[in-house]
């Protein structure tokens, strides 16, 4: 067994230990007398006796290993072993894993530190699989080893504690060690060669008592199966006896009171039985018995103090004992005075500001108890206030109506002192009154004041009426969602059980959706607005909603709820700072995010009863998000013990939901049929109640030191992380969808997406008010969030396309863009972009030719001519955008399909769900495009197609053979067309062009181009001719040089890397608009 390194002096140790092995850094020793004939003689007997009496580890582990440093008399014990095999295993491990490393250290101190660190690491690793928990003291760990070695009990037997004592064998005391475990009482002693080993099962004990006589002043008598055993010389005999009594009782209950035993979680699981737990249990049982309290009560705290006894006119010294539901006091002698105070009877708990450290508890019947000299009395008052608020019932001497009038009077006094309205002084007293809850009659006015909505309404007179009139009768996605949620907004409240309340809610929500279409309407807005309408006029509720959505909770109410996610991250950070034990217990911090989302979005309205939730809203309008964060921390802190015992997230959520169900507002003047907290079942009302005022006050006292500046800083810091996480999620979803349709690998797609997105953002870097920004809409589906226009596509085409070296590359980029832009909105998404790039990189010969073919026929193809002849085929930005928007007529069936797509445009008119389903079904069953379905290419398009091929072949190593091949293909196609026409007409229509192409095959590219440009003018008088895709493909396949050119492999990785490094540099060469 590896041991915690401890210092030993080798000089004295040599008398008791013999050297077995040694090297420069370690020594292996054997205990004198072990494995020696005759037990080592008298020396061996003395050593064995000494080990037993002093509880030396050497008794059960006669081998040990010491760590030594050169020129030092101080050694460190690092391992021990019960036999030679065990210790040899440790020695071999040290030689194989440690010795080679030690030679690299420069100083002895570094060597020792390294060895100690390694040994501690090994001990920690062993502890994971041992019943000796990591928090057990080192001595207990050694005692557990001796317990296991001496008695050979199963590993599952849990050692509770151990004591040094004497066992009386006749009239001779034998000094040894008593071990108390869950099922056995065990004793071991070794004196002068005489070994005593005693194991008594607790369920065999028939008598257990404390005795005393002439010889034994105090001893514990154990009778088992008719045999009497006496143990004495205990340091704390009363504690030892109490523990033995509990363990024996535990065994008896397990055998003879099975039903009670099974219902007791502590007894049911032996691994949960600890010395501390048994002692705490004993104290609770004594506490319950003395004060005759219900069986389930457990003693939580004990405070020494003085209680003022009014009828005797003096203070009596005693102990204040606190359980879950009672505060009890017993005087020192136990008979002079005792008091039982049920928390359900408590009305108020106060503390004095003098040095007496007094706690005053007021109960029903106008009785008060005054406790003096209470240690940590301020913390105690805070705890008791929280507990008493929870345990009190809804009936008080002071009615809620009277309390409401008292609150109103307090605010009137404040208004007289500090002023009323926008310019009033806001002091600590103001916050204290807000924490207590704003009176019903003042709530709307003060919400408007504290939120700043009063200023918005004052500076925009008549605005709400105008917006309501303009939004009246509109029909869109937002209004449909509003109509769906109207009846779900506080349906139990009478105000929203009639058309009057529903109509007001509809007008406010619709008006805001019209005012701010970017947000429109989001779920949770209906719940918040319902509460606002309960206490404010309709127009005031509208401006309060504006203040919440646009100032106080920015970016909360949109599709990505970035603001809420940011504040959740801030909340997690605060949990790590203020509740570290909860952070250590919860392995996954996302639990807090999932639980707290509704807290932030609805300001706790969705989880708390309405009468309690409005108090939270009071604090929110005064302190902003700070109050919500503080309350969240206070709730977790209040439920800390329950959360630490939860085994999974579901159990933790259940615990929090039960807590919220039992939050009440004892001061609420709302009628009982409206209060949600008063309508709970009898089963729930038996649980502990918590008053919202006490909870809010607790949150301010504990976490009021959180500063606005810190929250602001944390918001900024976490906003970056949240947005980047959302962007990464968007990217992963896009790649997952796109990867199913392309041959690019995920890594290549990832790099391509980065380049695509970077180009979009580069367009915004140096351009104020750039229109590109409007192309990013986070509310759209993942694929549609980022879209590029023709100008950005041209830049990417130049960087990525293997055909970008062509002289007419701008025209190719334009035609490719028009081909991909199927819905004619002059924008393409990443899926469309990657499909074209994938064909260029990984497409077959047929796919590449088909792509080029489609680029030269409508709707992609349009005649392109630059206004500036000196620039050749290069197009300016304005020309590019003009040609990309140019409308090209399409076949009737394509027009119908396009009109169906346009009918699905978001946010305009009512959505045609059937059209959406039809489009989705068409996409699901979309088959690969049949080449026979492609339209024929006319003569002007074919001429441009041929010119494009010539441009692609420029500067290729096989340039001449490629020119010759394309001339042969062109000549062949024209002759085929001529033969076809002769069958229908005796007049030859393509002879001149055929001769021209034959000649162009033997000339340079420039000559070929000139011939191709001249011929169409001469052929326009002739009847038009055209080619099908199958004809062009078959002709091209006959030329090996052409096939080799288009099937030439492309180094995609190198192309993407080069594009990434060149992307920014290429922008500097462009003229910034």
TrEMBL record:
CC terms in the record's Gene Ontology section: cytosol
Compartmental location: Cytoplasm, Cytosol
Region: Disordered, residue numbers: 984-1019
CDD domains the record matches: PH-GRAM1_TBC1D8B, PH-GRAM2_TBC1D8B
PROSITE patterns registered for this protein in UniProt: EF_HAND_2, TBC_RABGAP
The organism's place on the tree of life at top rank: Eukaryota
Keywords, in A-Z order: Cytoplasm, GTPase activation, Repeat
Compositionally biased tracts (Basic and acidic residues): 1003-1019
EF-hand domain segment(s): 808-843
Keyword Nucleus assigned: no
Entry GO MF terms: calcium ion binding; GTPase activator activity
Subunit text: Interacts (via domain Rab-GAP TBC) with RAB11B (in GTP-bound form).
Purpose: Involved in vesicular recycling, probably as a RAB11B GTPase-activating protein.
Designated name of the protein: TBC1 domain family member 8B
Organism ancestry: Eukaryota, Metazoa, Chordata, Craniata, Vertebrata
